[in-house]
Amino acid sequence: MDIVKVEGKNKHHRILIYALSTCAWCKMTKQFFKDHDIAFEYVDVDLTNDEDHEKIRKDIEKRGAPPTFPTIIVDDKTVITGFRKDLIKEAVGT
Amino acid sequence: MISLEKVRQRAESDAKTYGYSLNPDPAFLNDLLEGLRKNEERYGYPGCPCRVATGQLELDRDIICPCDYRDPDVAEFGTCYCALYVRKDVIEGKTQINPIPERRPKEKQERAYSTIKKPAETPQTTPVETGQVKKKLWYCKQCGYVVFREDPPYVCPICKAKRELFAPIELHTLPRG
User: Fold this and answer.
1) Which residues does chain B have with pLDDT short of 70?
2) Contacts of B57 (CB under 8 A, 6+ apart)
3) B168, containing H or E segment
4) Domains and CATH numbers, chain B
5) How do residues A25-84 score in pLDDT, each as one tens digit?
6) Counting CB atoms within 10 angstroms of each CB, which of A47, A76, B32, B74 has the fewest?
7) Does domain A4-82 have CATH number 3.40.47.10?
8) Domain parsing of chain A, residue ranges
9) Model-level pTM greater than 0.90?
10) Taking CA atoms, what residue in A is nearest to B47?
């Protein structure tokens, strides 16, 4: 699976974003982390193969969240559905 | 290849028809329109940029922009799911644009996802059964609008009657003679 790493000075948390390359909310989410200089990783799910797509969907569902995008996973435990700035800030402490 | 300008014009025209506006943030709007353009290039139809399409028209029909969920979403939240279409009070700054929950029924999402190939050891040999999409004729009891779809629209595009005012049309073939 192609996970893209984006560098940032703040590496306190491990951030993974399941996104879509066509989605404006996903783009805004990625930009939020860039603006705050927070390192993160992302996968554009619409650009993955079917197998990876299925794995990602199962991974989101396993965490009890709906398979919608963006889904932001902080430190492998907090799952945020959608670009909820308030929840993201709370989770990463900005 | 469809141009971004064409996608914009189509969205503007549709917004005008339904009394909506397009997202007031020019950069965000541009991203949405570009997403629609990309999806139209990929699939041959403009699937919602914020949802995953399968590339199979019958399974994606409800998420082709403007999606089936736009009108109830705009009515309830002020914007559609991707926030391309917004209500007047959003433009006036009285209502904020926030991410909204997915209204697309889980069954439809699962049906679409189930067409996506399963991981390796079980190669998918069964072709997608688009026959599982059972379409029928529905008519609006208020204005007579008729549509051939799996489900009736949430809102009648002609008279704005609610879904409850749609009824299926039963066709009976009588033997001749």
Assistant:
1) 116-131, 177
2) B43, B44, B45
3) strand B166-168
4) 1-114 (3.90.460.10), 134-177 (2.20.28.10)
5) 999 999 999 999 999 999 999 999 989 999 999 999 999 999 999 999 999 999 999 999
6) A76
7) no
8) 4-82
9) no
10) A22
Which candidate from B35, B116, B118 shows the least CB-CB separation from A22?
B35
- Name residue B90's amino acid: V
CB contact under 8 A, B28 and A26: no
**Token pair belonging to B1:** 């290849």
| Interchain CB contact of A22 with B (< 8 Å) | yes
Rounded distance, CA B97 to CA B80, Å? 10
**Is the CB of residue A16 less than 8 Å from the CB of residue A5?**
no
Q: Closest Cα partner for A25 from A70, A88, A89, A59?
A: A70
The pLDDT score that the predictor gives to residue B126 is 47
Here the ipTM equals: 0.92
